[in-house]
């Protein structure tokens, strides 16, 4: 069994009791300790985390087409150990999924997840002028040990309309992930384009992800925007 913890907000600590498997961003391992020699090994996944070869190949193709490609590494642990993972000093946020619960997350913001998470890619809408593409990566809890660790470029904020039922509007280039409580919680894409966009006088905030009050959702946002197209 695996347990996720953060160290100084910037590092993921994974404690393994017995034997287990972890999926992480390739190259994110920074340190580890174990009794009686090293008892964990790393393997780059060429396709994906699915056990079925055909599903893994299809998932790999879909991720490349949608821009949600994620270079993954499989960590096989054979005994008690503690390992640490990080990515260029980014902040680490941990979430434990309930069975059947889904988090939609930008692929570049995924640091690690346990094998009790089912990884997939889902289309969410039409294209927009942003680094945010047509699809999102999803992780769904399929067991009692479904941990997810995501990355934030700076300390993130959490917006939620679960109680307030307010409308949430988020820049697609700043969103990390979102979790809904029921039904379809994918955002709609709102645009505010005018003739000013054509002459270079736009505000720079011409599009947004929007969740209405009828969509109870929690959204994690980083205080940094992905670079748009030059």
Overview of this structure, please?
This protein has 230 residues and is mostly beta strands. The chain contains two helices and 19 strands. It has helices at 53-66, 195-198, and strands spanning 2-7, 11-16, 19-25, 29-34, 40-45, 72-78, 81-85, 91-97, 102-105, 110-114, 117-123, 135-141, 146-152, 157-160, 168-170, 175-180, 188-191, 207-211, 217-221. Strands 5-6-3-10-13-8 form a six-stranded antiparallel β-sheet, with no helix packed on it. Strands 11-12-9-16-19-14 form a six-stranded antiparallel β-sheet. The longest helix has 14 residues, at 53-66. The protein is elongated and about 60 Å long.
Question: How would you classify the helix and strand content by structural class?
Answer: mainly beta
Question: How many whole angstroms does the radius of gyration measure?
Answer: 19 Å
Q: How many helical elements?
A: 2
What percentage of the residues does DSSP assign to strands (E)? over 45%
Give the termini separation: 45 Å
Q: Write down the secondary-structure element order.
A: EEEEEHEEEEEEEEEEEEHEE
Shape: elongated
Largest sheet: 6 strands, antiparallel
Would you report the number of β strands?
Answer: 19
Strand order of the largest sheet: 5-6-3-10-13-8
Share of residues in helices: under 10%
Secondary structure: elements and pairs:
Elements: E1 2-7, E2 11-16, E3 19-25, E4 29-34, E5 40-45, H1 53-66, E6 72-78, E7 81-85, E8 91-97, E9 102-105, E10 110-114, E11 117-123, E12 135-141, E13 146-152, E14 157-160, E15 168-170, E16 175-180, E17 188-191, H2 195-198, E18 207-211, E19 217-221
Antiparallel strand pairs: 1-2, 2-7, 3-6, 3-10, 4-7, 5-6, 8-13, 9-12, 9-16, 10-13, 11-12, 14-19, 15-18, 16-19, 17-18
